[in-house]
Amino acid sequence: MLAPVTVGGTRDQFRCIVIDPGLTEDAWITGIEVRPGNTEVVHHVLVWGDPDRNGQRIAQNAGSADTYECFGAPGFVAPLLNAWAPGSLPLETPPDVAIPLRKGSHIVLNMHYHPTGRGDATDQTGVALRYTTT
Question: For the chain, which terminal residue's Cβ has fewer other Cβ atoms within 10 angstroms, N or C?
Answer without folding.
Answer: C
